[in-house]
């Protein structure tokens, strides 16, 4: 259950980061509300996951899912640059997520 909560928390991090971009500095109501709602839900699910998962593992995986997800949304939806260095950085983040998961005893 903790891993499912953590995955959902990470996916909601992608939602709030994307909505924040569309909020234009919290000047647009709907994306601002989506941002704040997704943030609260993401933090709540992260807190739930941390009840049984180690802090370092949970936090690293949560931020990794959000970072790589936001990177992908940026490329696909916002036309952000795809460069070898950015791809390499995303690969390193995913590698860190996998290693954290493998190192967890839960």
Write the layout of secondary structure elements.
Blueprint: H1 2-22, H2 29-49, H3 55-78, H4 84-103
Description:
The chain is mostly helical. The protein has 4 helices and no strands. The model has no long low-confidence stretch (mean pLDDT 95). GO terms for molecular function: transmembrane transporter activity. This is Guanidinium exporter. Belongs to the drug/metabolite transporter (DMT) superfamily. Small multidrug resistance (SMR) (TC 2.A.7.1) family. Gdx/SugE subfamily.
Notable traits:
single chain, 106 residues, mainly alpha, 4 helices, 81% helix, flat
| Secondary-structure element order, N to C | HHHH
Give unreliable regions as ranges.
none
How many angstroms does the end-to-end distance come to?
11 Å
Number of domains: 1
The helix content, as a percent range, equals over 70%
**Mean pLDDT across residues:** 95
> How many β-strands, per DSSP?
0
Biggest β-sheet strands, sense, barrel: none
Taking all Cα atoms into account, the compactness measure Rg is 15 Å
Q: Which term fits the overall shape? A: flat
Q: What portion of the residues fall into strands of 2 or more residues?
A: under 5%
> What class do helices, strands and sheet pairing give?
mainly alpha
Q: What is the count of helical runs? A: 4
Compact description:
81% of the residues lie in helices and 0% in strands. The protein is mainly alpha-helical and 106 residues long.
């Amino acid at each position: 259950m903790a891993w499912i909560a953590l995955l959902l928390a990470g996916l909601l991090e992608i939602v709030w980061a994307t909505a924040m971009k569309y909020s234009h500095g919290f000047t647009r109501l709907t994306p601002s509300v989506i941002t704040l709602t997704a943030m609260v839900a993401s933090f709540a699910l992260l807190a739930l996951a941390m009840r049984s998962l180690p802090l370092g593992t949970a936090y690293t995986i949560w931020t990794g899912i959000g970072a790589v997800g936001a990177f992908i949304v940026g490329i696909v939806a916002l036309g952000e640059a795809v460069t070898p260095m950015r791809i390499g950085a995303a690969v390193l983040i995913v590698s860190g997520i996998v290693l954290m998961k493998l190192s967890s005893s839960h």
